[in-house]
Specification:
InterPro entries: LysR_HTH_N, LysR_subst-bd, WH-like_DNA-bd_sf, WH_DNA-bd_sf
Pfam family, one: LysR_substrate
Shape: elongated
Largest sheet: 7 strands, mixed
Protein name: LysR family transcriptional regulator
Structural class: alpha/beta
Number of helices: 12
Number of strands: 11
Helix content: 40-55%
Family: Belongs to the LysR transcriptional regulatory family.
Keywords: DNA-binding, Transcription, Transcription regulation
Length: 296
């Protein structure tokens, strides 16, 4: 089988168009047809049926397209693997959200390279899990470390690493920082600081506060800015406990004792099910899943 013919077929199958494939590959449409005809002759099977503007893969075409995708994904993985392996060092490409990359990843890397000094890391930060998953599918990342979310891709495996908790945070000197049990009605009398709409924390807050009359004094797009505003007494907000642990220990912040504002959220590892993992990547995966992490 000629792999270039197979590549042309896969592009045609993906775009469902000979004209679209010709434009994508930058060759003429008759040349596209010639490649498909040669592939069908080699395989001895009809791969594509066209009647007027109707285009569909035959059963044989669907089967070959599935295997063709796997072959070219493997080629991409091989190319990326060769890029990452240096003479004495292997590099891991880790996709992270801004929160996990700030409060968990440095500790994870520091602990791992203590026993694996030949490994280097290239973190890729994205706020959106959708963007991270697309990069993982395209073999631009080895794994993702992020907060759990709904994943609708069967080829992605999701494994829990540790449970964090989204909590309601008060200034450390607030009268309610004494761990007294608070009612929802008491909490909503305080001014709130909201996050930007694209953070996963904001929908959690809005869901809890649905129907309540509240005073939103600020809306900030950066978690550290939200944290600083709470420390300065401007209002209260919800934050991952991993991001405030040191400030709580130092007395700068306190967790409000109001159960309705405590939301568990898992930190997870995402990886491709069919990816060929190097020894170092397998070791890092096992390391992440076997240790206890507290964040920052």
């Amino acid at each position: 089988m000629n792999l270039h013919h197979l590549y042309v077929f896969c592009v045609v199958a993906e775009l469902k168009s000979f004209a679209g494939a010709a434009k994508e590959i930058n060759i003429s449409q008759p040349a596209i047809s010639q490649h498909i005809n040669k592939l069908e002759a080699t395989m001895g099977k009809k791969l594509i049926e066209r009647k007027g503007k109707v285009f569909r893969l035959t059963y044989y075409g669907e089967t070959l397209y599935d295997y063709g995708q796997r072959i070219f994904h493997m080629v991409e993985e091989a190319e990326h693997a060769l890029m990452r392996v240096g003479r004495h060092q292997e590099k891991l490409f880790i996709g992270v959200s801004n929160i996990t990359g700030t409060y968990f990843l440095p500790d994870m890397i520091a602990n791992f390279i203590e026993y694996n000094p030949h490994v280097s890391f290239n973190p890729v930060f994205e706020d959106s899990n959708i963007e991270l998953i697309e990069k993982l599918i395209k073999n631009q990342l080895d794994i993702i470390i992020t907060y759990e979310s709904m994943v609708l891709r069967d080829e992605i495996q999701v494994l829990p690493i540790v449970q964090d908790e989204i909590v309601l945070v008060l200034p450390g000197n607030h009268p309610w920082a004494s761990n007294r049990l608070l009612s929802f009605e008491e909490v909503v009398t305080l001014p709130f600081i909201f996050h930007s709409p694209d953070t996963f924390i904001q929908p959690i807050m809005e869901n809890i506060l649905t129907g309540a009359s509240i005073n939103v004094i600020l809306q900030l797009g950066n978690l550290e800015a939200v944290k600083a505003a709470v420390v300065r007494g401007l209002g209260i907000s919800m934050l991952p406990y991993s991001s405030i642990r040191f400030e709580v220990e130092a007395g700068l912040l306190a967790v409000a004792n109001c159960p309705v504002f405590r939301v568990p959220r898992n930190l997870v590892l995402m990886r491709k099910r069919n990816a060929v993992a190097t020894g170092v990547l397998t070791a890092f995966n096992d390391f992440l899943l076997s240790h206890e992490w507290t964040g920052k």
